[in-house]
Amino acid sequence: MIVNCGSQDGYGFEREAFGIASPDVDERLRSERVRSFTEAIQKVMRCQHFLDWNPRKPKTPLIQSLFRRVAHGLRDHRDLRFYISVGTWLDPMGVDCFFEHQDRVVTIDLTVRPFKHDLRADFLLSRLDFVLDCHYQLADRMAKKLSRRQKLVA
Predict the structure, then answer these.
(1) Most-buried pick from 31, 50, 101, 137 (CB within 10 A)?
(2) Per-residue pLDDT tens for 138-147?
(3) Helices of type H across the chain
(4) Domain ranges of the chain
(5) Which residues contact 10 (CB under 8 A, 6 or more apart)?
(6) Confidence (pTM)
(7) Who contacts 152 (Cβ-Cβ below 8 Å, separation ≥6)?
(8) Within the chain, how many helices (H) and strands (E) appear?
(9) Residues with Cβ within 8 Å of residue 110, at least 6 apart in sequence
């Protein structure tokens, strides 16, 4: 997969990955308080329509490629979902997106800095990973982690 490796900022990479600009709903979404990480995950799952995103059918080539590879690594991939969380409650927690499968979640921080040191998500996914096709290896690790992860508790 060929991806433009130009000097794009983080927002540019997010736009390319998710097909959205910085969401208009940013302030409205983040103005509501959340008490826990699990509550933030659940709220993000319910607000994907504000972001014009279908968690079952990612619309951009970058995420479609990642989604297919993670699905390939799961025994039963029918319940696999990919959520974007840019501009939501999870964004300040270092989570730009996440996979959910049968109430299990793995989080991803999308970055243009491949050697980021302040990682709070489960996985760091950089533009370079796509350029070098390393995202396939990361997707395999994501699928394994999804399979072993404990289910979310409401």
Answers:
(1) 101
(2) 889 999 999 8
(3) 10-18, 26-31, 37-46, 61-72, 127-131, 135-148
(4) 10-148
(5) 110, 111, 112
(6) 0.85
(7) 38, 41, 42, 103, 104, 105
(8) 6, 4
(9) 10, 13, 14, 17, 96, 97, 125, 126
